[in-house]
Amino acid sequence: MIASIALAAAETYPVWGFGWWFLFIPLFWILIIGLVIALVGGRRRRYWAHNGYGPGPWGPWAASGAASAETVLSERFARGDIDEKEYRARLEVLRASATRPVPPKG
């Protein structure tokens, strides 16, 4: 009786197990995990770009950094902390360094 059950099971299930389509299961999970990583990374970069966090072109030291430095400099000039000659010299340095590319770290 056990032999007949074993023969029936051998005829029902192929020798190769699940067949070739078993490769779709890991590919499906790799796709799902990659999609989640891409969505989370994109949301994080947009959040950083909006709030000014993190390294890269969206960080606080990007283009907005030069504008804020000019604002601080103009406020110091308006308060009388620095004279016009020093203000113009520092403003020139700020604008020159803002146009110069910053070398990457690492």
What is the N-to-C succession of helices and strands? HHHH
Q: List low-confidence stretches.
A: none
Helix-strand makeup class:
mainly alpha
User: How far from one another are the termini?
Assistant: 71 Å
Strand count, sense and barrel status of the largest sheet are: none
Provide mean pLDDT, rounded: 76
Percent helix: 55-70%
Structure summary, number of beta strands:
0
Number of helices: 4
Spatial shape: rod-shaped
In terms of DSSP E residues, the strand content is under 5%
Rg from Cα: 32 Å
Describe this structure in words.
- It is a single chain.
- With 106 residues, the protein is an all-alpha fold.
- Helices cover 68% and strands 0% of the residues.
- It contains four helices and no strands.
- The longest helix has 28 residues.
- The radius of gyration is 32 Å and the shape is rod-shaped.
Write the layout of secondary structure elements.
Blueprint lengths: L1 H11 L11 H28 L11 H17 L4 H16 L7
Helix pairs in contact: 3-4
Describe what is shown at a glance.
With 106 residues, this protein is an all-alpha fold. It has four helices and no strands.
Which features characterize this protein?
single chain; about 110 residues; mainly alpha; 4 helices; about 0% strand
